[in-house]
C-alpha cells in the first residue's frame, strides 16, 4: 500500500520526469523513500529528502540513493534546504504538515507541482489544540503551483500496473524497501507507539501466525 501511494502520487499525479527536482519529507519512511527512488528511476534530475535525525538521513542517502537529506531537527535546517535546492524544486511530496508544505512552496519554481499525501505531525494532536494553518494563497498563485490531494484507494484499479513496474525494479535492485517487523499481536501496541513517535524504521508490519490468531 505505501508503495502504491508513492507510485500513484509521483507518477500519476505529479507526472515526474526528466529535469524534475523532487523534495519529499518523512523520506526514510516507506512512502517517502519509495517516492524518491521512483522519481530517480523516472528520470528526475535531483531528489532531496527531509527526515528526522542523522540515522534516518543516512538511510535516505545511502540506502535509497537520494542526492541529499536534510535533518529538520537541527537548527538552521531551512537554510540547509535552500542550499540543497539551488535551482528550487519542481515537485514536492508532502507527508508531514502544512508548515512543511509552506516551506516546500517557498523553495518552489514557478509551475511547481505538489502532492498532498499525509499530515503525520498532526495525527496525535487533539482537535482543540490544532492550530489553523493559513493557506499561502499568494505564494501558490505567484508560483502558479498545482496541488494534488492524494487518496491511495483511488488507484487500486492500477495495482497491476504498479506491481508490474515495482516488482521489476525490486528484482533489478533499483528499488529498496524496509520493513519494521514484530511477531505476534501482543507486540502490536509497542510497534504502533514507535510508528506514532516517528521511531519506526520502515513499514510497520505485525506477523500473526494462524495458531495464535
Ligand atoms: N493519502 C494517502 O492515501 C496515504 C496513503 C498512505 C500513507 N499516507 C500518509 O503518508 C505519510 C507517510 O506514510 P508512511 O507509512 O511512509 O509513514 P512513516 O514515514 O513510516 O511514518 C511517518 C513519519 O512522519 C514523520 N513525522 C514528522 N513529524 C512527526 C510527528 N510529529 N509525529 C510523528 N511522525 C512525524 C516521521 O519521520 P521523520 O522522523 O523522518 O520526520 C515518521 O516516521 C503519512 O502521513 C501517511 O498518513 C497517505
TrEMBL record:
InterPro entries per the UniProt record, alphabetical: ADH-like_C, MDR_fam, NAD(P)-bd_dom_sf
Pfam families: ADH_zinc_N
Keyword tRNA-binding attributed: no
SUPFAM superfamilies: NAD(P)-binding Rossmann-fold domains
Occurrences of domain Alcohol dehydrogenase-like C-terminal (ranges): 30-161
Residues annotated as transmembrane: none
UniProtKB keywords: Oxidoreductase
Chain segments annotated as coiled-coil in the UniProt record: none
GO MF terms, alphabetically ordered: oxidoreductase activity, acting on the CH-CH group of donors, NAD or NADP as acceptor
Protein name per its UniProtKB record: Alcohol dehydrogenase-like C-terminal domain-containing protein
Organism: Hyphomonas beringensis
Amino acid at each position: 500500500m505505501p508503495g502504491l501511494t508513492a507510485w500513484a502520487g509521483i507518477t500519476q499525479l505529479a507526472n515526474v520526469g526528466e529535469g524534475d527536482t523532487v523534495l519529499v519529507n518523512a523520506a526514510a519512511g516507506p512512502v517517502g523513500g519509495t517516492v524518491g527512488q521512483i522519481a530517480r528511476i523516472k528520470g528526475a534530475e535531483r531528489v532531496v529528502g527531509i527526515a528526522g535525525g542523522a540515522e534516518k538521513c543516512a538511510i535516505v542517502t545511502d540506502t535509497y540513493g537520494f542526492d541529499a537529506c536534510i535533518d529538520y531537527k537541527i537548527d538552521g535546517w531551512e537554510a540547509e534546504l535552500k542550499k540543497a535546492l539551488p535551482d528550487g524544486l519542481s515537485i514536492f511530496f508532502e507527508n508531514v504538515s502544512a508548515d512543511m508544505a509552506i516551506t516546500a512552496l517557498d523553495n518552489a519554481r514557478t509551475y511547481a507541482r505538489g502532492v498532498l499525501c499525509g499530515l503525520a505531525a498532526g495525527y496525535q494532536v487533539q482537535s482543540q489544540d490544532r492550530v489553523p494553518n493559513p493557506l499561502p494563497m499568494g505564494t501558490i498563485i505567484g508560483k502558479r503551483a498545482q496541488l494534488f490531494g492524494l487518496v491511495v484507494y483511488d488507484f487500486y484499479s492500477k495495482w497491476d500496473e504498479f506491481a508490474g513496474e515495482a516488482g521489476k525494479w525490486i528484482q533489478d535492485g533499483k528499488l529498496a524497501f524496509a520493513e519494521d517487523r514484530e511477531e505476534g499481536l501482543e507486540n502490536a501496541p509497542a510497534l504502533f507507539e514507535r510508528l506514532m513517535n516517528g521511531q519506526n524504521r520502515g513499514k510497520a508490519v505485525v506477523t500473526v501466525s494462524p495458531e495464535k490468531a
